[in-house]
Amino acid sequence: MLGTLGLAAVLLRNVLERRRELALLRAIGYNPGHFALMVLAENAILVVYGLGTGALCALIAIAPAFVARGGHFPALSLLLLLLVLITGLFAGLAATAAAIRTPLLPALRAE
After folding, report:
1. How do the residues of the chain divide into helix, strand and coil, expressed in percent and rounded to 5?
2. pLDDT tens-place string over residues 49-87
3. pTM for this prediction
4. How far, in Å, CA of 1 to CA of 87, rounded?
5. Greatest CA separation found in the chain?
6. Whole-number Cα distances in Å, 84 to 16, 26, 54, 79
7. Residue 10 has pLDDT above 70, yes or no
8. Residue 16 burial (CB count, 10 A)
9. CA 99 to CA 35: how far, in whole Å?
10. CB 90 within 8 A of CB 5
11. What is the SS3 assignment for 72?
12. Contacting residues for 46 by C-beta, under 8 A, at least 6 apart
């Protein structure tokens, strides 16, 4: 749970750090739908690749014990992985909403 909250914080911080760049894109005419899709896609790629890499590394680490104990994979682990994925995607939605609601002029002044 703590890692999932950390993931949400990282995604939100990523958007907040790029506030000026995103405001500039909005100023030159990016459609809010395209803008939201771009931010969501970036966050989804980070979440999916991060989970994939972590799951692969975990499988490699537990492979000897997995084989020695008969190869029973707990379904709860897969459900928790799915829960982290869903939470990460919702965090991406929150970051996207924050990026869209950012006032344009103050962000451009900082540029």
Report:
1. 85, 0, 15
2. 988 898 899 889 988 888 888 777 777 878 888 888 888
3. 0.74
4. 10
5. 62
6. 22, 31, 12, 9
7. yes
8. 13
9. 9
10. no
11. coil
12. 11, 14
